[in-house]
Amino acid sequence: MCAKKTDMSAHEPSWAEVILGAALSVILGAVLGAVVLAIKPSAAVKELPKEPVAGTIYYVQGSHDSAKARQAATKRKQFAQGASVSVTEDEINSFLPPPPPLSTAKAKPGDKAKAAEKKAPEKAAKAGEKPAAPGAPASTGDLVTVGGPNFHLHDGKVQIAAPATINVLGFEQAVTVVADGSFVKKGNGYVFDADTLYLGSCPVQRVPFASNYVSQKFLAAIPVPEDIAAAWPKVTDVAVEGNALKLTMP
C-alpha cells in the first residue's frame, strides 16, 4: 500500500499573511522598545557633562532659589495689570508652585520612612546628578500622570521638566517628562511648542501618535495662576533673552 501524500500547500501561509506578520512584529518591537526607554530614568544635572555617559539622557534642572526671586510678586502683579516684564527662571518657578499631591490617603506611622528608603537611589550615578523624578505623583490610572513643573531657560529656549508616573498594565514607574522648545503665536495667543519631548529616556516626538497625547497631558498639568492666565491672551511677544523670559504687553 502506498502512503497517502499530504498536500502541504494548503497549510503554507500566503504572502499577505507573511507581510502582516512581519509588520506586526516590527510594530510590537517598536512599542516594546519605546516602553523600555520610557521607564529608563533621565538624569537631572546642574550643568550638562562634558563627557556624557552613552545612552543617558540629561536635562538641566531649573533654579528655584527664593533669594533670587524677591521681585517675583511685584513682577507678577505688574504683568497681571498689563505691564511688560522680564522674569528669570527662579521667578518663573516661584510663579508656578507644585500642585497638591494627587494621593489623599493618610500615611501610616513608618510609611514615610519606608517610602523615602524606596525612592532613595541605590548609588549616585555621577557627581552633581540628582535622583530622577523627585516627588513623582501618585498614578491616576492613566498611562501618564504628570506632577508639578520646573522651568529652565537656555540658548533662547524654554525647558519644562516635570515628574511623572507611567502606568503600563499595572506596573508603575517614576520618570521625568522633559520638553524643550519655545513659545509661538497660534491663533490669538502664544502657546508652548516643544521641539523635543522625552518621557524618561524615550524621545516621544519620534513615536507616532504618542507625542500629541503626552504633550496634551504634560501641558494640561501645568498649574497656571488665575491672574497670569487672565493676562496671558494680551501678550504680544514672548522671547528668551539671556537668562530671562521677556513677556511683552501692548
Describe the 3D structure.
- It is a single chain.
- Strand 9 and strand 10 (202-203) form a beta hairpin.
- It is built from 6 helices and 12 strands.
- The chain has helices at 15-38, 72-80, 89-95, 111-119, 210-220, 226-231; strands spanning 43-45, 58-60, 85-88, 129-130, 144-146, 150-154, 157-168, 171-186, 189-199, 202-203, 237-241, 244-248.
- The protein has 250 residues and is α+β, with helices and mostly antiparallel strands.
- Strands 5, 6, 7, 8, 9 and 10 form a 6-stranded antiparallel β-sheet that branches. A 3-stranded mixed β-sheet has the order 2-1-4, with no helix packed on it. A 3-stranded antiparallel β-sheet has the order 3-12-11.
- It has one domain (34-47, 56-99, 124-248).
Task: Compute the number of helices.
Answer: 6
Radius of gyration: 24 Å
Q: Structurally, how many domains make up the residues? A: 1
Poorly predicted regions:
23-33, 98-134
Pattern of helices and strands: HEEHEHHEEEEEEEHHEE
The 3D shape can be described as globular
Q: What's the total number of strands? A: 12
Instruction: Sketch the major β-sheet.
Output: 6 strands, antiparallel
Indicate the percent of residues in helices. 25-40%
